[in-house]
Amino acid sequence: MDCFEWGDGYLDRFGLIYVDRKTLMRYRKESSYWIAGFLKRQY
């Protein structure tokens, strides 16, 4: 879920999942694949 930033409102996007605000479809960002691989190697 994205956070509200005082300077930019909801323009900045954070997190591992991208949400299309028109359709509410969710898509994994590249960073989610990286963190999944990292966690698999560590644990």
Automatic annotation (TrEMBL):
Keywords (A to Z) from UniProt: Glycoprotein
Superkingdom assignment: Eukaryota
SUPFAM superfamilies, sorted: (Trans)glycosidases
Any one Gene Ontology molecular-function term assigned to this protein's record: beta-galactosidase activity
Pfam families (alphabetical): Glyco_hydro_1
GO biological process terms held by the UniProt record: carbohydrate metabolic process
InterPro entries linked to this entry: GH, Glyco_hydro_1
Gene3D superfamilies from the UniProt entry: Glycosidases
Protein family: Belongs to the glycosyl hydrolase 1 family.
Name of protein: Uncharacterized protein
Lineage: Eukaryota, Viridiplantae, Streptophyta, Embryophyta, Tracheophyta
